[in-house]
């Protein structure tokens, strides 16, 4: 990468900047940031040493990769204002949820190279799960660049079809909220059993984090790992039976299905 630009400097933009610099993909002076709030660019300069930009033209002239990190409703106006002469040869990475490639390419030009990405909020802790889809004009070198960019935040997968980004949104994009709810419920149960609130929350969060790491690092099916914990006639077996009585897995699947349906509705607007 010759230079990496960010148009929009919200929480996700900052998380990406932190990941890029932490992975040493680029030095801070090669990361350029534009935001409608100049003071926000100043904050990021003070925090990370990145370079504030006051105009789209100067940002495009210095960068071969530009992250469009603005809200979906703002993206159309940003695309209209980008100078035409700075678009050729530039990789544009959009993290605007629900905005299809057809709309982005319609604003930029159909020959432009665009990657759509759906990272999630654990990017702020360097543990994101991101799905990406590349437009037809993304070169192998640009694709590798996009993969490295999101790998600096956590796990990244390339999707074979754009519509699967809706499934990613429903599963991992919205998924942290489901997990936070589960952690809260675990902690509440711990408090009910006599633990202090702080201890219960710490133990619940560490339990979820540790279990997730076991799934990734062992490569075993979650069902196999569950069986390793569940002794015959034991406490875990009793607890799992209670979860199944409440249709735990079915409710989780229904939640993801509802999010997927809503994502499709929003994308079609």
Write the layout of secondary structure elements.
Blueprint: E1 4-7, H1 11-22, E2 31-34, H2 38-48, E3 51-52, H3 56-62, E4 65-68, H4 75-81, E5 91-94, H5 101-108, E6 113-118, E7 128-134, H6 140-151, E8 154-158, H7 164-173, H8 175-192, H9 197-218, H10 222-229, H11 235-245, H12 248-267
Parallel strand pairs: 1-2, 1-4, 2-3, 4-5, 5-6, 7-8
Antiparallel strand pairs: 6-7
Order of strands, widest sheet: 3-2-1-4-5-6-7-8
Fourth-tier CATH superfamily name of the largest domain: NAD(P)-binding Rossmann-like Domain
Overall pLDDT: 94
CATH fold assignment of the largest domain: Rossmann fold
Structural features, described:
The chain is α/β, with parallel strands linked by helices and 269 residues long. It has two domains: 4-165, Rossmann fold (3-Layer(aba) Sandwich), CATH 3.40.50; 173-267, Orthogonal Bundle (ProC C-terminal domain-like fold), CATH 1.10.3730.10. It is built from twelve helices and eight strands. It has helices at 11-22, 38-48, 56-62, 75-81, 101-108, 140-151, 164-173, 175-192, 197-218, 222-229, 235-245, 248-267, and strands at residues 4-7, 31-34, 51-52, 65-68, 91-94, 113-118, 128-134, 154-158. It has an eight-stranded mixed β-sheet with strand order 3-2-1-4-5-6-7-8, with helices on both faces. Strand 5 (91-94), helix 5 (101-108) and strand 6 (113-118) form a beta-alpha-beta unit. It is elongated. The two termini are 35 Å apart.
């Amino acid at each position: 990468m010759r230079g990496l630009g960010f148009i929009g400097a919200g929480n996700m933009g900052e998380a990406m900047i932190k990941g890029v610099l932490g992975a040493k993909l680029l030095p801070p002076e090669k990361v350029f940031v534009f935001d409608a709030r100049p003071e926000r660019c100043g904050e990021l300069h003070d925090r990370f040493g990145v370079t504030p930009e006051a105009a789209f033209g100067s940002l495009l002239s210095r960068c071969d990769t530009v992250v469009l990190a603005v809200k979906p409703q703002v993206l159309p106006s940003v695309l209209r204002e980008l100078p035409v002469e700075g678009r050729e040869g530039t990789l544009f990475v959009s993290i605007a949820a629900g905005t299809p490639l057809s709309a982005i390419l319609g604003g930029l030009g159909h020959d432009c190279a665009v990657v759509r990405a759906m990272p999630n909020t654990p990017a702020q802790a360097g543990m994101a799960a991101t799905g990406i889809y590349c437009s037809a004009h993304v070169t192998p070198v640009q694709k590798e660049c996009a993969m490295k960019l999101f790998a600096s935040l956590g796990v990244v997968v390339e999707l074979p079809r754009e519509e699967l980004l809706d499934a990613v949104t429903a599963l991992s994009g919205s998924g942290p909220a489901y997990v936070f709810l589960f952690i809260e419920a675990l902690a509440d149960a711990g408090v009910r059993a006599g633990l202090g609130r702080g201890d219960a929350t710490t133990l619940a969060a560490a339990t979820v984090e540790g279990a997730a790491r076991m799934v990734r690092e062992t490569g075993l099916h979650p069902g196999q790992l569950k069986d390793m914990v569940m002794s015959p006639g034991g406490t875990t077996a009793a607890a799992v039976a209670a979860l199944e009585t409440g249709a735990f897995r079915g409710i989780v699947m229904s939640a993801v299905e509802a999010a997927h349906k809503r994502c499709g509705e929003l994308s079609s607007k």
